Amino acid sequence: MKIRFEDTITTAHDHRHIPHVFEVPEGTTEVHIELAYSPRFSAGQMFHNQMSLSVADPAGPRGVYYLLRDYGINITEAACTPGFNAGPVRPGRWLIEVDTYRLLPPDPITYTIDVTLSDRPVDTPPRVFPKPKRALRGRGWYKGDLHAHSLHSDASWDIPDLIAYAKSRGHDFQSLTDHNTVSGLPEHDSRGDDELLTMGGLELTTYYGHAVVLGTRQWQEWRLDTDDHFTMPQLAQKAMDSGGFFIIAHPQNVGYPECAGCHWDFEDMRPGNARAVEIWNGTWNPCTEHATQDFYHWLNEGYRMVATGGTDLHGPHAEPRRHGTNVVFADELSEAEIVAALRRGHSYLSAGPELLLTAETASGARAMCGDSLSPDDATISIAWKDTPPGARLRFIVDGAVRDQRDASEAGAASWPLPKGAAQWCGAEIRGADGSMWAISNPIYLDGRQ
Fold it and tell me: Which of 62, 105, 194, 310 has its CA at a distance of 20 to 30 angstroms from the CA of residue 349?
């Protein structure tokens, strides 16, 4: 059986979810879907028109076709196109939504969706991804990446390539956070071993901002104009209530039309109910600098925030890049404990240097990054090593540089902070050119939890 949908849309349909409904008869074993649209580039535009397809069956979402590829979408009980979950081909009402991320003037855009339903036997056995047993590693510092992609959304590499890259960089953990889909997580989990912890998640990719949700293997709602009329704070809360660790992603990256949704445009969530923000996305650049200033501003407003980083890798690079990895102090190398440590802020971001921030009060209370101390006279200590030539250490108090010194060689330093002199403090390692090499999460000095 073949079904065709056709429509012509314009910029008036930008940032919409355009529904197309079809019926799947009992006995159907395979659903194949193809999308074609024209023009790819509207006249005079340097960025192409961008659409994705979301598919749901009677039981709920099956996946997202985030990057349109030549082979279309194939859904069977045994196997699916990357981005979609294998499982029973359920009879009943199916829904295809055209997600319009970027429609540029002046040309109208015509698209067709071709659906082919088949009842021929599917002989391919279901692919099983057994989750391996890992030897636990105990309390200590672990480094890794919280944001990366695969063929299951818009990357050029598959999951084994991502795993190989993480191991080549000496990571202890690697998250997979594809756009609006969790279909790659079973294979990702199966690739973990004693050398590398694989962690689950996804990137909520809305039209007005992106967010990474860690510690989950559940699909998360990302659409704001459904019948429920969710707000972004409500979507964030739903993700957090399901156990996910919600992180505002790359809030100051270049946005529409160059990158639809890549800039955080939710004014009611700056930071709103979010308590983590990805300040270091990819390599250090002006966007990450601005995100860091957002982070400092929110700390000064009294929010308890956690800074994270992510490579946001979509494939290999010809030359190594200086990404910021997350260095996390966890009770053990497990997903639960890494996420728990991140929630506490027991982490710093680094492109190589070690950066240890600690504090001790006159009464003997001690703290590390992410901890909160009751107001008291305190001594703040910073230790560093593995820094580049010309590096500078910056001691940050309430978002301002209190002191700085040469950090080309390994060293340590301490500063007194009288009771009531600061809300929080942190540390940075900057290169000779001013770019970031490492940044700590803060220690809070006002006693609030």
Answer: 194
Residue ranges and CATH numbers for the domains of the chain are 2-118 (2.60.120.380), 140-351 (3.20.20.140), 352-449 (2.60.40)
DSSP annotation of 131: P
**Nearest Cα residue to 416 out of 430, 401, 397, 440:** 397
Task: Annotate 337-348 with DSSP letters as a single string.
Answer: HHHHHHHHT-EE
For 154, the enclosing helix (H) or strand (E) is none
Q: What CA–CA distance (Å, rounded) separates 166 from 148?
A: 10
Return the structure tokens found at 123: 């002989």
Q: What is the pLDDT of residue 67?
A: 83
Terminal alpha carbon distance of the chain:
60
Looking at residue 158, its pLDDT comes to 96
User: Residue 299 has what DSSP assignment?
Assistant: H
Residue with tokens 């966890």: 330
CA 7 to chain centre: 33
Nearest Cα to 94, choosing from 79, 115, 68, 112?
115
Whether cis (ω within 30° of 0) applies to the bond prior to 39 is yes
- Residue 101: name the closest of 43, 54, 36, 152 by CA: 54
Query: How many CB atoms are closer than 10 A to CB 38?
Result: 12
Q: Which run of H or of E encompasses 74?
A: strand 73-76
Which stretches does DSSP call E strand in 316-421?
Answer: 325-330, 347-350, 354-361, 366-368, 378-385, 392-397, 400-406, 411-417
Asked if 410 contacts 384 with a C-beta cutoff of 8 angstroms, the reply is yes
